[in-house]
Amino acid sequence: MSPVIRSNWILVALVMLMSLAIYNHFRQQHDVLSPITPLDTHLISRIEIRHNGTITAKLRRQKDIWIDAASGQPAKNPDRLNKLLHIAQLPSLYRFPAADHDLQAFGLMPPRFELKLDDTELRIGGLDPASGLRYAQTGNQIHLISDSYTHYLSQQP
Asked: Are 123 and 114 contacting, i.e. CB atoms less than 8 angstroms apart?
């Protein structure tokens, strides 16, 4: 085997080891992140969505069926509701106390959306301009979360 081929194989092995180490690092980091709420999404029985302070949807679960509280009819898009419930389990990528900051700067006073899951309220605010992550408030904590599910709040259930 020529020295050039041997060097290439050694480089390939080093690249694979480095890739494995980086992957393992990010996987461990993701496992450590806690969700923004401690709620078990299978136990949630009521959902209320407010957009700019106005209630846009109010639903309740009866057995395994979501019912629109206003009309009494089953929800037309249960997959969307599952995605809404998933917002409660989004990992908090960064968190800090709400009391130390001006909530208006984060789009949380007033919030763009409010998602009430049983008795837990999530206030969904603006986007962080540097990271593209969304501000969300639960209790006295402000979280930065992925913005991949929040567009479901603006659709009718």
From this structure: yes
